[in-house]
Amino acid sequence: MSTEQSIDVDRIDEAVLALLFLGICERDRISGLARTWKSFDWAAMQRLHEQGMIHDPVGKAKSVYLTDEGLKRSEQLFHDLFGRRQTA
User: Fold this and answer.
1) What is the pLDDT of residue 86?
2) Can you tell me whether residue 24 is helix, strand or coil?
3) Which residue(s) pair with 7 in the sheet?
4) Cα–Cα distance between 58 and 30 in angstroms, integer?
5) C-alpha angle 68-79-5 in degrees, rounded to nearest 5
6) Alpha-carbon torsion 32, 38, 44, 46, what sign?
7) Residues in a beta bridge with 34
8) Which residues lie closer than 8 Å to 83 by C-beta, 6 or more apart?
9) Which of 42, 61, 64, 66 fits 71 for a cystine, CB–CB 3.0-4.6 Å?
């Protein structure tokens, strides 16, 4: 089975949408529209750094390095959260 067939993209889209809610930074009083950051929550990134999952996220770069432990854990979580569930 290919990776594309084993990944539930609907669950990924839901997770991204949930993280966009986490990043809301402004609401328009008239229209009710909410503006959100396109990147991950800074406090969450700092917590991941403190847990040793990523290298220091502070800086101008728009990317961050995963530690060896962080890479292993992120892969495990990716498959646990977004892998297609087998039906009996």
Assistant:
1) 74
2) strand
3) 83
4) 35
5) 130
6) negative
7) 27
8) 6, 7, 8
9) 66
Q: Which two tokens stand for residue 8?
A: 């539930």
Q: What is the pLDDT of residue 4?
A: 57
Residue with tokens 């991204």: 16
Could you tell me which of 58, 62, 59, 61 has the C-alpha nearest to residue 46? 58
Answer for the pair 22, 38: CB distance below 8 angstroms, yes or no.
no
Cα gap 37→17, rounded to integer Å: 11
Question: If 0-12 CB within 10 Å is exposed, 13-18 middle and 19+ buried, where does residue 82 land?
Answer: middle
Interhelix angle 9-22/68-82, rounded to 10 degrees, is 120
* pLDDT tens per residue, range 28-72: 999 999 998 888 888 899 999 999 999 999 998 889 999 999 999
